Write a sequence for this structure.
């Protein structure tokens, strides 16, 4: 799917440094990404690759002392330059977030109703009656029928799956144009995961809300998004259509990730990517994946490849053309 | 899915559930709380219970021991000690109550503001607190009395300022922990204002600690005010106040009539111990919930 002419969200050469013990430490090297209206993009990568920091940068909720270069544009407007009032408005109405651990993100001493209604009533300015009505309707549509009772309950009285539905309802309540879903199912048990994901996917499509879906589960991301962006050590390694990134990985890291997925049908030792994941601040001047890549050459160590178009993908690899067809084929073919 | 059966007990381990259950078990909390309530009730209703006037002197009845007419005896001027204790309770408790009210509001407000704004504001506040900590409360109070003159106002102002850093320090550490929790991020992402997040989310979650610290500080403030009265820098005679009664009775004590000193001293001790125990139990409970 090609992004709309004016993208809803545009990350442009994003670079983020966090302050750790007074020193700046780079966590995002260079992330450029576009999301069209109503489009779903999966942001996939291992722990520490900068997925969540990217999401927090989009929300402009970084730890104190963080430095951001590049730009985040929402509907053509720079998010990084918003004033306090506009920033609150942007967070309240334009973008909503769904979290990995719903329990930690609800104030334990306040009711579900307080949590759901506080944003619409106090940040957006809806009347309490209208907001309650909308919340009840939304809770029903995410599969919580006895909504009026739930509104009076406290977070500890609800299961993790129910809480995540409440969080999804809270995200939809503001009628945002974009939802950032940061591993929304990771903390849930497997049977609940599927239901919650189905609800999120269904509601999002019905309402035409765009989604940035952050996960380390390639298959899940491929199932619910239009495009996938694979991150490694604070950079985007590859962006491609979700439907066929499985088969046509152009970046050695993507190919490695695909090959490392466990299978439920074959009993065999898992394929791994050699070496350990590196953090963004550890990488040298070259390609961030150079230290672990099987196809590394001198140029990869000296010069960082830029993200460039190749076929219908974007890929950050010097040797993408040469390696095309040679990557990850055995694993993909066996599947 | 909605009819998901909740496990009976484990799901109710939350703050509300546990608070209700352990309240009945916490006998020390109940006992100290009851004493505190009784003391405050006596202070409020005292004049209704007392038979005579606290300032009616009678040379003929000076330094009497306890009798059916004067339950706790009389002082050197023949005033009924029990009546004076009842009347004095108001003044003795009002001072600390004012001090705690002011220092709690100031300390909690300053601490939450500092934690929320962070950066330079927090550093400046920390330095201010350090300076205030370096001042002994009593010495500071004497200084302010020297400027504003004796009475209840000067010591209350001085001790309110002196007690603020203690409250601020306790609240700051809890508020900082609360500030770093994910639900505060969620509040920000919902577009809530800083004021709302601080007053409706952080404040209720530090309230347990505030309550405990206020109760403990109440006892300390009572002692400090009594000491100031004892030194003759607080309320002046013939007003009835416990610290003043201890001072007043000290002459009689040396002459072999300890009743006024003992009675007023006992009132101070019982009140302070009750509030300290209450505060301690409240502190344990607010810790236990985390």
């Amino acid at each position: 799917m090609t992004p709309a002419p004016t993208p809803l969200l545009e990350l442009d050469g994003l670079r983020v440094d966090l302050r750790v013990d007074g020193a700046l430490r780079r966590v995002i090297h260079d992330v450029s990404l576009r999301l069209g209206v109503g489009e779903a993009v999966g942001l996939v990568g291992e722990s520490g690759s900068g997925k969540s920091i990217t999401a927090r940068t989009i929300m402009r909720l970084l730890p104190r002392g963080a430095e951001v270069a590049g730009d985040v544009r929402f509907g053509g407007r720079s998010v990084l330059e918003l004033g306090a009032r506009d920033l609150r408005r942007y967070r309240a109405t334009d973008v909503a977030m769904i979290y990995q651990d719903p329990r930690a993100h609800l104030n334990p001493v306040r009711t579900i109703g307080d949590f759901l209604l506080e944003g619409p009533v106090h940040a957006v300015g809806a009347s309490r009656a209208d907001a309650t009505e909308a919340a009840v309707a939304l809770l029903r549509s995410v599969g919580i029928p006895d909504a009026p009772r739930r509104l009076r309950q406290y977070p500890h009285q609800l299961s993790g799956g129910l809480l995540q539905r409440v969080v999804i309802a809270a995200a939809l309540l503001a009628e945002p144009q974009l939802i950032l879903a940061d591993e929304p199912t990771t903390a849930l048990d497997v049977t609940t995961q599927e239901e919650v994901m189905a609800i999120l996917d269904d509601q999002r499509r019905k309402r035409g809300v765009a989604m940035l879906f952050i996960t380390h589960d390639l298959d899940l991301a491929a199932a619910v998004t239009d495009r996938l962006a694979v991150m490694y050590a604070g950079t985007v390694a590859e962006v491609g259509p979700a439907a066929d990134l499985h088969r046509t990985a152009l970046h050695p890291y993507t190919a490695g990730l695909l090959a490392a997925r466990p299978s439920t049908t074959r009993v065999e030792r898992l394929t791994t990517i050699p070496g350990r994941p590196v953090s963004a601040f550890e990488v040298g001047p070259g390609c961030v994946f150079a230290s672990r890549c099987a196809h590394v050459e001198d140029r990869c160590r000296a010069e960082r490849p830029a993200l460039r178009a190749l076929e219908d993908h974007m890929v950050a690899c010097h040797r993408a053309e040469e390696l095309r067809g040679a990557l990850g084929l055995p694993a993909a073919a066996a599947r | 899915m909605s009819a998901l059966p909740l496990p009976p007990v484990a799901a109710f381990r939350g703050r509300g559930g546990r608070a209700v259950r352990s309240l009945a078990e916490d006998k020390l909390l109940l006992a100290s709380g009851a004493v505190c309530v009784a003391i405050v009730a006596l202070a409020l209703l005292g004049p209704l219970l007392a038979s005579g006037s606290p300032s009616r002197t009678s040379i003929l009845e000076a330094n009497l021991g306890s009798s059916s007419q004067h339950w706790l005896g009389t002082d050197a001027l023949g005033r009924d000690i029990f009546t004076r204790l009842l009347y004095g309770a108001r003044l003795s408790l009002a001072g600390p109550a004012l001090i705690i009210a002011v220092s709690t509001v100031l300390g909690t407000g300053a601490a939450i503001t500092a934690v929320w704004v962070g950066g330079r504001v927090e550093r400046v506040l920390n330095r201010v607190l350090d300076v205030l900590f370096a001042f002994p409360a009593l010495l500071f109070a004497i200084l302010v009395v020297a400027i504003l003159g004796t009475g209840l106002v000067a010591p209350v102002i001085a001790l309110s300022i002196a007690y603020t850093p203690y409250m601020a320090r306790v609240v700051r550490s809890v508020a900082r922990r609360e500030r770093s929790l994910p639900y505060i991020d969620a509040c920000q992402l919902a577009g809530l204002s800083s004021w709302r997040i601080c007053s409706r989310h952080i404040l209720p979650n530090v309230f347990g600690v505030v309550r405990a610290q206020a109760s403990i500080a109440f006892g300390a403030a009572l002692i400090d005010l009594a000491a100031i009265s004892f030194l003759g820098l607080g309320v002046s005679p013939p007003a009835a106040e416990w610290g003043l009664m201890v001072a007043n009775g000290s002459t009689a004590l040396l002459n072999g009539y300890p009743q006024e000193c003992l009675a007023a001293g006992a009132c101070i001790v019982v009140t302070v111990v009750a509030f300290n125990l209450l505060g301690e139990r409240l502190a344990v409970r607010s810790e236990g919930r985390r």
Observations:
- The CA atoms of residues 100 and 186 of chain A lie 6 Å apart.
- Chain A has twelve helices and twelve strands.
